[in-house]
Amino acid sequence: MNSLRLLVLLVSLPLLLGGCGEKPVAVQKAIEGVNFEELKYREGIAYLKGSDTPYTGKVFGFHENGQKSWESNYKDGKEHGLQTFWYENGQKWIEGNYKDGKQDGLWVSWHENGKKESERNFKDGNEEGMQVAWHENGKKQAEANFKEGEPISGKFWNSKGEPVDTWKEAVAE
Fold this sequence. Notes:
Elements lengths: L1 H17 L6 H8 L1 E2 L3 E4 L2 E4 L8 E6 L5 E8 L2 E9 L5 E8 L2 E9 L5 E8 L2 E2 L1 E6 L5 E8 L2 E8 L5 E2 L2 H5 L2
Parallel strand pairs: 1-4
Antiparallel strand pairs: 2-3, 4-5, 5-6, 6-7, 7-8, 8-9, 9-10, 9-11, 11-12, 12-13, 13-14
């Protein structure tokens, strides 16, 4: 009886451990992520080259200096979840979320000096609600209220913190 158990164990062990090896390539790539150059797009949907299944997983790109320039998450071939961009020096530049291929929720950007540049809110890909921008010196540059992607009111300041009438005046200097 003991020798039968040993035989069953010896025959089954390789079969059981076979499932503990490497994951299929598509699953492994989804977990680790792929360089955007490994994707192809058809009608706005991302696919791994050589695959007809819409891609789900992480995607990233690099600056010429080798630093990661951006990382995004995809679900069923569309951007979905957190997306982050970095300057060449590694400083975070932009961070926000996508939902079913459209910007959704709060997006924040920073100047290269690390100071906050903007806070923008999105709903279904359109700017929605209060949007705020700051000059590189940290002084407020603009406040604008949006509805369905269209500005409905706004206030602007120059880099000295003085009120100005237009966005063009706020960005001049």
